[in-house]
From TrEMBL:
GO terms for molecular function: DNA-binding transcription factor activity; sequence-specific DNA binding. Keywords: DNA-binding, Transcription, Transcription regulation. Signal peptide: none annotated. InterPro entries: AraC-bd (IPR003313), Homeodomain-like_sf (IPR009057), HTH-like (IPR037923), HTH_AraC (IPR018060), HTH_AraC-typ_CS (IPR018062), RmlC-like_jellyroll (IPR014710), Tscrpt_reg_AraC-type_HTH (IPR020449). It comes from the Bacteria. Residues 179-277 form the HTH araC/xylS-type domain. This is AraC-type DNA-binding protein. Gene3D superfamilies: Homeodomain-like (1.10.10.60), Jelly Rolls (2.60.120.10). The lineage of its organism: Bacteria, Bacillati, Bacillota, Clostridia, Eubacteriales.
Length: 288
């Protein structure tokens, strides 16, 4: 019997501070009308089959099978394809990270995007992309953690297999956008507000908006909106003679029944019960 032990000596304790926002797969069809757009996060496009063009800023690049396109945050881009050999690719949205090309220790001028081909390493690179797709489709226990670990493996493999000096770097935060959304809700809470409304206000993808808002404020935009409406309704119940139905409309709920249900869930009592309790408490305080 032979036994070989390989010791792992960790010379690099730095952790990758990146979060996987989404995984998707796409095939360019006739009804697909792509438009120029940007995201406040990094996207990776891996071409599984076909060929086409990638438009970034004012430049056009031809892409083929096993090409990887890295588009860092806030870079305007889109993709196009021909029906004869349509593009099929897998896309990852990644928060908190940019991948940049470096020369002599400094980022290259066009490091906000780059193109690479991994035909020689197709099996190891594509396997990770496909594993990510499989995990998000099945959604079995702990799939989010597994996906995050797959992302780390993929990123390190990309750096390892890229001939040029591809490096991982922190991405700027989006505190400004989150603060804007919070202030917008504080002012417009009584109006009809949806995730699409907020996304249009900031030009952010709505799923990414939820992600970064929760990261900064430990709640989602819609939960913050509901809490704001409840707080305003409490003030009106305590200080006005408006009916519960009127207060429901004033603070932005689309029905009294939903308002009552939400209020009970948050406060443990109905709006009418809350008003009665608070006025009784106020009356006793005045008697003293």
């Amino acid at each position: 019997m032979s036994n070989i032990v390989y010791k792992i000596i960790n010379h690099n304790n730095e952790r990758i501070s990146a979060s996987l926002i989404y995984v998707s797969k796409a095939r360019y069809e006739k009804d697909w009308h792509s438009t120029m757009h940007s995201h406040p996060f990094t996207e990776l496009f891996y071409v599984v089959k076909g060929s086409g063009n990638f438009l970034i800023e004012d430049k056009t690049f031809h892409v083929v099978e096993d090409d990887l396109v890295i588009v860092n945050a806030n870079v305007v881009h889109t993709e196009s394809s021909k029906d004869a050999n349509p593009l099929e690719y897998i896309v990852l949205g990644i928060d908190g990270l940019s991948l940049s090309l470096y020369e002599t220790g400094r980022p290259q001028e066009d490091s906000f995007y780059s193109f690479h081909n991994y035909r020689k390493h197709r099996e190891e690179i594509l396997t990770v992309f496909q594993s990510l797709i499989s995990e998000v489709e099945k959604k079995e226990d702990a799939y989010e953690v597994i996906c995050q670990n797959y992302l780390n493996i993929l990123l390190l493999n990309l750096v390892r297999r890229t001939k040029s000096a591809l490096r991982l770097a922190p991405q700027k935060n989006t505190t400004k956008e989150c603060t804007y959304i919070k202030n917008y809700i504080d002012i417009h809470y009584s109006e009809p507000i949806t995730l699409d409304t907020l996304a249009n206000e900031t030009y952010l993808d709505k799923y990414y908006l939820v992600h970064v808002f929760k990261k900064h404020f430990d709640t989602t935009p819609i939960h913050y909106l509901i809490d704001k409406r409840i707080e305003e309704s409490k003030h009106l119940l305590e200080t006005t003679h408006h009916t519960v139905s009127q207060i429901s409309n004033i603070v932005g709920f689309n029905s009294q029944s939903y308002f009552t249900q939400t209020f009970r869930k948050k406060m443990g009592c109905t709006p009418a019960e809350y008003r009665k309790r608070e006025r009784k408490s106020s009356f006793h305080s005045k008697e003293r």
